[in-house]
TrEMBL record:
This is Uncharacterized protein. It comes from the Bacteria. It comes from Streptomyces angustmyceticus.
Length: 229
């Protein structure tokens, strides 16, 4: 009987659970996990650039002139999963949170200014790739970060697959209310080539993707009011 040998468990990778090689002893994550994470990080800026376009917001949207189904107001195409990835709180924020936790563990200044999400994503990924060798070796929460990077990559990839550029599409009814509180109700359209939506009836304009989100919220609010009336 050798109790010592029975109790001893060989060190494993925190991220995938595989036993570490002798040459990996003392590491938090194995080299294959590190290599996969570098590859995912390197692909994220390009995935983000493709997602951060009007066309990807409108993929799968109903084309102008297509018959609408029974519902009074057609679904509004701006895809929330795409918006939630490209806007603040999305890819850039999730990468920043990882960068900040590594910086804190290293005793470095946290939250350096990285600009807009489009500017920040390549900066964050560069930082994370440069410092991944340290994190895989010594950072004890690396398993969570490897998993979050993997999920981010899957979400971006999934949001990019689907129909290609639909041309001009219906984007719901104009929710802008007049003095009496009645919604304009004109059919709004948008084209894949431009983020600008303008109502042909009341002239209201939504000029960028942040405005699209406001538009969608206003349409939902108008819808609820309409349904209750
Ligand atoms: Zn591993
Ligand atoms: Zn209008």
């Amino acid at each position: 009987m050798n109790d010592t040998a029975a109790d001893y468990s060989w060190p494993t990778c925190m991220a995938c659970g595989h036993e570490l090689w002798v040459s990996e002893a003392g590491r938090q994550a194995c080299r294959p996990c590190e290599d996969k994470t570098v590859k995912r990080l390197a692909e994220l800026p390009s995935l983000f650039r493709q997602l951060n376009t009007t066309a990807s917001l409108m993929r799968g949207a109903r084309k102008v002139g297509a018959a609408t189904s029974g519902s009074r107001v057609p679904p509004i195409p701006p895809r929330l999963e795409v918006l939630s990835l490209v806007a603040a709180g999305g890819v850039a924020t999730r990468l920043r949170d990882i960068e900040d936790s590594w910086r804190a563990a290293l005793g470095w200044t946290v939250a350096p200014w990285r600009g807009s999400p489009a500017e920040a994503v390549p900066e964050h990924t560069r930082f994370l790739i440069n410092n991944l060798p340290w994190a895989a070796d010594a950072y004890d929460s690396i398993d969570q970060d490897i998993d979050d990077i993997r999920r981010l990559h899957v979400e971006c990839d999934a949001a990019l697959t689907g129909e290609r550029r639909p041309g001009r599409v219906n984007v719901g009814l104009c929710p802008v209310a007049d003095e009496s509180g009645k919604a304009c109700g004109n059919q709004l359209t948008a084209s894949a080539g431009s983020p600008r939506i303008q109502c042909g009836t009341c002239g209201t304009e939504w000029s960028d993707m942040a405005a699209w989100r406001d538009l969608r919220r206003a349409q939902e609010a108008a819808n609820e009011t309409g349904a209750a009336a």
